[in-house]
Amino acid sequence: MRHEDFRAHFHELVDGGLSEAQRRELEAHADACSDCGRELRALREIVAAAQALPRSIEPPRDLWPGIETAIGRAAPVHARVQRAPHGWRGWFATPAVPRWAAAGAMALLVIAIFSLGRDLDRNRSAAPDGGASNSTAPFPAAVSGLELQCRGAGQLLQASLRLPVGPGTRAAATSLADGLISGLSILDRSIDETRQALASDPDNPALQRMLTARYQQKLALLHAALLRVETT
Amino acid sequence: MVEPQIGAGSRNPGAPPEPDARTIDQVRARDAQEFERLYRAYAGRVYALCRRLSGDPVRAEDLVQETFLRVWERIGTFEGRSRFSTWLYRLAVNRATDVLRAEIRRSLHETPGEPAEDAMPVARGADPGVRIDLEAAIGALPAGARFVFVLHDVEGYGHEEIAEFGGFTVGTSKSQLYRARRLLREMLSR
Amino acid sequence: MKTLLLRSLCIAGALGFAASAGSAKPIQEKRPVDEDVLVTVKNVNGTVTIEGWNEKQLEVTGTLSGDIEDVEISGSSSRMTIEVQFPRHTRHSSGEADLDIKVPVGAGVRVEVVNCPISISKLRGDLELEAVNGDIAIAGEPARIEAQTVNGKIEIDASCAHVDAQTVGGRIVIRGAQGDLTAATVGGRIQVTGGKFERVRLSSVSGTIDFGGELAGKATFEGESHAGDIVLHLPDGVSADFDVSTFSGDIDNDFGPTGARREYGPGRELTFSTGDGDARVRLSTFSGDVQLTKKAQAESER
Predict the structure, then answer these.
(1) pLDDT tens per residue, range B109-124
(2) How far is B144 from chain C (nearest CA, A)?
(3) What domains are defined for chain B?
(4) Cystine design at C65: which of A94, C24, C122, C238 (Cβ 3.0–4.6 Å)?
């Protein structure tokens, strides 16, 4: 066997994958040839030293605080994955529902999160009776579900926006945040006004439809931003 | 269903115990305290992996944080069919690969056999008799060779998996491994 | 599924190591491609300008500045990807990539950018454009347009039969389109002039909707706004069924009745028909006013 042949295959000798006959031929050459034998020993030493390296290295500083900040110090909450209530799908027939609403809601599983944590939505839409999420009449049942989804999506987005990732995401996050905050405050104002109107005219189907559409737009906006942040 | 509480075999002496289903559920339920415990159990392993792959202790810190944030985001998709540690290390390798992709690709185009300009051995200590150690030598490897060497010889992944992580062929994975070993041999024999 | 790689070339590798921050690096790359190639462009900071031409070539020119590592051009003659490589290890990249791209007129184009204005012209294929912080301007005759931007505005000056434009705060201006149009915004305003449409859906929350196009025979038109006004400029002889409702806005109608107040609560509704009632127009606002105005004869024949 020539040295070049040996050197061509001695990695596989160390890693396995040769036939019994090939192995014996290579080992025989290594025994007979002092140069090749030395190379084989050196290779085995490197591989053995690599395998013996410590598998764990303590980071030079505690990285937990950065992670904790990014996940938002959420108080213990219970997450439940829930499909959209059946009635809601009917609302897609509403005229002029933005494409984002349909695509966003269908593309992501709907997550209902009950939480005491912070909310991306700083202008929380307050129901006229002061309660945050009153799921009884006069609001359509679908609306309280949407409201909760908005809160959940807002939390996820808030956490995502704080991810310490590359320059693209950082740039995106800042402009996204600005655009979102202004878009969300417009939507929240419209939600407030519509809810107030519904409070004095609870059986108005046009108002009910409008309120649902506003929540869908809000959720779609949050979902679209989430997708954008995740894929940037 | 309780995960078997074993160290993962002879290649992993002293590996952290696998979290049980209850712990995973709590993290899914956004329990930050449980998540911190999980972090503390695995941070060293993930840091070692990221530091060796990136060759840079500062980037490694970012990679560790990004990996655990992805765990937090995606724990909902972890179904317990594989071990948690397997899933976690894959997230870490994938994140590191994303970050290093351009460098790895550049280094794959260099002619094999010619040490890349950036494969300069770390300066020796004052005593010329002191050899540079293996960690430093790994850090001095070109990105592609280092990527494969760390995953294959240090972490124990096979060439198929490494090729999948890196987006290249099994043949490339093997040739990068052999290149890494050759360069290490040169650096360590000085 | 792996596409056959013709070549994957890192430009910084070809030119040598990356220039130091502050200097601009020119790009000049060309690839042979099919006339219906699908081109994907990804950038973070800078500009993206894409123009159609009659060659079966993809040409990328422009400059990279700051700490941009390279532009990666990869793929096959039927699918090409142009991706600007931003350094990942710094938090704030100072770099910008200004890309001037020429593709065959029949190419399909997909653009994903963060802080880049996008400008497209002379293309006939499908366009999918997404920006976070960038204006989108489209001219030509694309077959289909899907454009989304968060902070930017969208201006389409194109005879395209399938348009879907979405913004959060920026305005949407559409000229000369036709067929199927969807435009949605939260805070921007929507303005449509010219063109003849079969299906229109316009949605806004606080911005005005101003429509001055024409409705084809059995067209459907849906306009919805919360606080923004909806203004339709329709030709005198328009033939349509109208269904207009507003909660607290006013309805101003050049075509006849001004609408009845709801009997037992606030709100106004207006239902009427003109001509043979071929098209269907449904408008709904919360507090925005609705104005149905007659286009002057000369205007509608422009």
Answers:
(1) 765 554 444 444 444 3
(2) 15
(3) 16-100 (1.10.1740.10), 110-190 (1.10.10.10)
(4) C24
